[in-house]
Write a structure and sequence with these properties.
The complex is a heterodimer. Chain A is an all-alpha fold. Chain A is built from twelve helices and no strands. Chain A is globular and about 65 Å long. Chain A starts with a helix and ends with a helix. By secondary structure, chain B is mainly alpha-helical. Chain B folds into two domains: 64 residues; 43 residues. Helices cover 79% and strands 0% of the residues of chain B. Chain B is built from six helices and no strands. In chain B, α1 packs across α2. The longest helix of chain B is centred in the last third of the chain and has 35 residues. Chain B is extended. In chain B, 40% of the residues are buried. The chains are: A mainly alpha, B mainly alpha. Chains A and B meet through α2, α3, α4, α5 and α6 of A and α1, α2, α3, α4 and α5 of B.
Chain lengths: 242, 118
């Protein structure tokens, strides 16, 4: 028993343990999701995060120790984002025709994401630094943190809100769109809406639907990062002025 | 496969350099994505190996967000009491953004098709 404990103490210090645990837990969460007919609430990111938080709390492990192992998975986000160009190129022949509808949908969705968070949060009595941290919640983490810092929010709070927004979108967007009458053939609109409102985690959800949905989600995510970075400081200045 | 990995990392690096040189508020990898898209458009086709590796990586994009998601654990204390309100705001706002984006896109495309047909 004490020998096992020593082995654990040794391994817990190495990145291998938490890297392996991350991949295993995600694999199990993904299997569970598939076995339950892709039930929205069993979204693999949500289940894997909840399970890993439980494991870290149970083993009294610091996030920093965990991340030393998990960073190898995290690092792949960069190359994967670049790789989004490939499915997007597969849709290139449609992009030219769809330029105007995509631009208008992007503007409408982006403004809605920022203004609704600001308005509902204000109605529910949130403080101004929390409201500022909320406004860029629909865009990818590095951009959102930069915007938050620029307008006087709390970047680390923004990082958490961005992740929660992504998970919310990944879990609820498809059921909502289904209610609104969008079928399996509407991959373009579904994917673009997921990418604009729920950034990379929404894009990952779109890729589970189809490559076409994923391509448009990646496009929506990239464009909204740019638009939100311009929009939020403007809206913040307007709100302050009134 | 190594060639494609080098390609993706190379475009990511080029993206990081470009956003710093130009001072645009976009993450390096997103700029890298746009540059790779432009390169594919100029070339006129996606090499088979690049398509295989890229699609393989993207099929499990969700896994790559797990380590950052677990980061929530580091912030639970300071948000005590705010959680219910924040969750209401996030859920309501995200659903509104999803609906508005999708409905605008389909309405505009219908309008465009209608005009093209007449």
């Amino acid at each position: 028993m004490s020998e096992l404990f020593e082995i654990w103490v040794y391994l817990a210090e190495r990145p291998l343990v938490w890297l392996t645990v991350t991949v295993l837990v995600y694999w199990a969460a993904h299997r569970l999701y598939l076995q339950c007919n892709e039930l929205a609430l069993l979204n693999p990111v949500l289940i894997a995060v909840v399970a890993l938080v439980g494991i870290l709390v149970a083993t009294d492990t610091e996030y920093g120790t965990y991340f030393e192992g998990a960073q190898f998975v995290h690092f792949l986000l960069g190359p994967a984002t670049v790789a989004l160009a490939v499915p997007l190129y597969g849709q290139a022949h449609r992009l030219r025709r769809m330029g105007l509808p995509l631009a208008l949908a992007l503007i409408a969705g982006s403004v809605t994401a920022v203004v609704s968070a600001l308005g509902i949060g204000w109605l529910l009595g949130l403080e101004s630094d929390v409201l500022r941290s909320l406004m860029p919640k629909s865009v990818t983490t590095p951009v959102a943190m930069g915007i938050s810092e620029q307008i006087g929010g709390l970047p680390s709070l923004t990082a958490v809100l961005v992740i929660l927004t992504g998970i919310t979108g990944a879990v609820l967007a498809m059921p909502l769109l289904h209610l609104l009458g969008y079928g399996p053939e509407d991959a373009t609109a579904k994917g673009f809406a997921l990418g604009v409102s729920a950034h990379g985690i929404g894009t990952a959800r779109a890729f589970q639907h189809s490559e076409e949905a994923g391509a448009f989600a990646g496009l929506g995510m990239g464009l909204n990062a740019l638009l939100t970075a311009l929009l939020v400081p403007l809206i913040d200045a307007l709100v302050v002025a009134f | 496969m190594i060639g494609t990995i080098a390609l993706l990392l190379g475009f990511q690096l080029a993206g990081e350099v470009a956003v710093r040189l130009l001072g645009v508020p976009v993450p390096g990898p997103v700029a890298g994505m746009l540059m790779l898209f432009a390169a594919l458009a100029i070339r006129g086709a996606v090499p088979e190996e690049v398509a295989t590796v890229a699609n393989g990586l993207l099929a499990h994009l969700a896994l790559l967000f797990v380590p950052a998601g677990v980061g929530i654990i580091a912030h639970t204390g300071r948000l005590e009491g705010l959680w219910p309100v924040l969750l209401v705001v996030l859920i309501a706002s995200t659903l509104m953004a999803v609906a508005v984006t999708a409905v605008t896109l389909s309405a505009m495309r219908r309008l465009q098709r209608g005009r093209g047909g007449s």
